[in-house]
Amino acid sequence: MKKIVFLTGAGMSVESGFKTFRGSDGLWENYPVEQVASHEGWLANPTLVTNFYNMLRKKLYAAKPNDGHKLVAELEKDFNVCVVTQNVDNLHERAGSTHVIHLHGELAKVCSSYDQFDERYVRELPEDHCEVAVGEKAGDGSLLRPYIVFFGESVPMIAPAAEEASTADIFVIIGTSLNVYPAAGLVRYVPTGCPIYLIDPNPVPNGGLANFHHIRKGASEGMRELVELLRGSKSR
Ligand code: OAD
Question: Model-level pTM?
């Protein structure tokens, strides 16, 4: 089976009701990104950050995967599919994707603020109990924090993601402005000769990549076109 690696960003979830980052003057769901998604922001005001993610988590549980997410998942019937996402939502998983690498953490989860990668204290909040109380503690006595990689923190999942990219037969980028590193650097690991598709309604600088095809559409419509293209190349 051929291997398809997807790299997805905020644009993937626009049709599920989420906003992009760079389209809204540095605001994330109406909050300045530095306030709610940076290490300094968390230290300065953990209550504000906790409440922000409580709000976002409720929104996530009310949201549904869009056709783009579903078509990515359906490709598992014919391809070995790996999804590398910068998104903290779980819409790929809820659409049925079974191999998802989250570079920037997961909104549905909370963790220790001493060490956010200490798996002993990472837990998923169920839909009917998805809010963290202000001052709530993790098992190690630290303040419970969102399982999110804030700006200024390391991105440990970049190593397995680069490994996946380096063994791709087809690489597909959906809905990311390729502005944030190290995620944006993943395209550089793609093997020479591997076709790279970009699904995004707007222009995205690609740094002169070879074998690059831009499908200038939204995630769902663009995925429909990609599926047709892949079917066509299989029957040839
Ligand atoms: P951006 O907001 O930078 O880029 C979103 C991209 O989605 C843009 O290129 C849009 O043109 C495109 N887009 C808009 N609507 C779309 C649609 N319906 N279908 C497909 N694409 C569409 O978001 P990211 O590149 O994901 O980090 O941002 C990367 C990281 O920066 C995020 O993970 C986040 C952010 O700050 C953290 O949370 C650590």
Answer: 0.95
Matching CATH number, 19-62+105-148, of 3.30.1600.10, 2.70.98.10, 3.40.1380.20, 1.10.150.20: 3.30.1600.10
Q: pLDDT for 127-151, tens place per residue?
A: 999 999 999 999 999 999 999 999 9
pLDDT tens-digit series, residues 166-223: 999 999 999 999 988 899 999 999 999 999 999 999 999 887 888 999 999 999 999 9
Catalytic residues: 104
The best mutation among 20, 83, 202, 220 to test binding of ligand 1, ranked by most ligand atoms within 8 Å of the C-beta, falls on 20
CATH for the stretch 1-18+65-104+154-236: 3.40.50.1220
d(CA 118, CA 122): 7
Token output for 139: 């098992």
